């Protein structure tokens, strides 16, 4: 086992790995080296082979995408229980990494792109969980798979008393003008309040490229990655500038999603589907 595949997350040792079931999809935490390796391999297939990313930390010999943060994270995996694999291993079709505490000596991954220090200090009583590295196998890119991932995130948050998700969500490519409609929608209709935002490190990209009155809401939503639309369903808010991630070839936006700002019907539906209720299930935070 390579050092990168080692697990140091205390949460993984004490949690029931099963998180949720949605039809044919079983959602759980990766608890074995083989499961984590499969999640890293799916990330490699999507990020490197499909999107052409060739970051320094990628392990081309083993076909995995794994960085220094991964040993400090839990990894949510979606398994298609209706699919058989040649070696009878679980058919992992989606993954999401979650970090309930800053990585020792590293902090949060998104802090390299956005200055999170002031945000964290203003909300030092909030239990943040960084989410990222979401990817889904090409044949499974539907809202059903995304919903399965969100069910896993919901149960994880309930079990660990997570107050807010935070992380960088990505649009493909490094030309923000290609996403002018979607980025402008986020800037005009879902901006984070002053005490819930963070500034881009270095030179940020203004997101308001199109006036609010000229935005077609439905067209803007269609132009967004499904993951970003999923965040909007939680009433998530976004920092007002984007970051160009040259290593990954993406345009990143900072997502801040306090669960108390999520619509009550959404929370109730998640509780019904997963059987898990958040410690602050009925708390309401103005978004």
UniProtKB/TrEMBL annotation:
Keywords: Acyltransferase, Lipid biosynthesis, Lipid metabolism, Transferase. The keyword Ubl conjugation does not apply. Its EC number is 2.3.2.30. InterPro entries: Acyl_CoA_acyltransferase (IPR016181), Ornithine_N-alpha-AT (IPR052351). It comes from the Bacteria. Pathway: Lipid metabolism. Belongs to the acetyltransferase family. OlsB subfamily. This is L-ornithine N(alpha)-acyltransferase. It comes from Pelagibacterium luteolum.
